[in-house]
Specification:
three-stranded antiparallel sheet; 0% helix; six-stranded antiparallel sheet; 162 residues; mainly beta
């Protein structure tokens, strides 16, 4: 059996973890699987931060070379999606956080670590959770950002499995 992964998102002050999220929509509320019609971002503001990580299950020896980037979807005027790699969880905020723009190629991606801070996730190793460290994502807009929905984006998560 091979490794499988699903994305997890953490929300709220006390860190409520939801495994197997169905979307990564950005909005004006700290919630998982967010509906952007219910929680739109007012032009000129930032979304609530998204703390996501991958959770590996199945049977494998090691997971390594974990990378994450925006692989498709055009940004509209004044829109930027920011990313901090290997972040620690903090209560999500809608205050602009100053992170760098998410890379648009695998070569621009930083290596993602295991939740324990190692370069690999080793199956069955004592004290290893199967989770990666967090990616902190946030969408920022400016007064120049057009009203209404922004373009759909595709994010790619790539890793090597042994």
């Amino acid at each position: 059996m091979a490794a499988t992964h699903q994305f997890s998102e953490s929300n709220t002050v006390s860190e409520t973890i939801t495994d197997g999220i169905t979307n990564l929509n950005f909005g004006s509320n700290d919630s998982v699987n967010l509906n952007t019609t219910t929680y739109p971002i007012t032009r000129g503001n930032s979304s609530f931060e998204k703390y996501i990580r991958a959770k590996f299950t199945g049977t494998f020896t090691t997971i390594s070379n974990m990378l994450f980037w925006k692989s498709a979807g055009a940004l509209v005027t004044g829109e930027v999606i920011k990313c901090a790699y290997n972040a620690s969880f903090a209560t999500p905020s809608a205050t602009a956080n100053g992170d760098s723009a998410v890379p648009t190629t695998s070569g621009g991606s930083s290596a993602i670590q295991s939740a324990e801070g190692a370069a690999t996730i080793v199956y069955g190793a004592s004290g290893v959770s199967g989770y990666t460290k967090y990616l902190r994502l946030q969408l920022d807009t400016t007064g120049s950002t057009p009203s209404g929905a922004v373009n759909q984006k595709t994010f790619t998560f790539q890793y090597d499995e042994v």
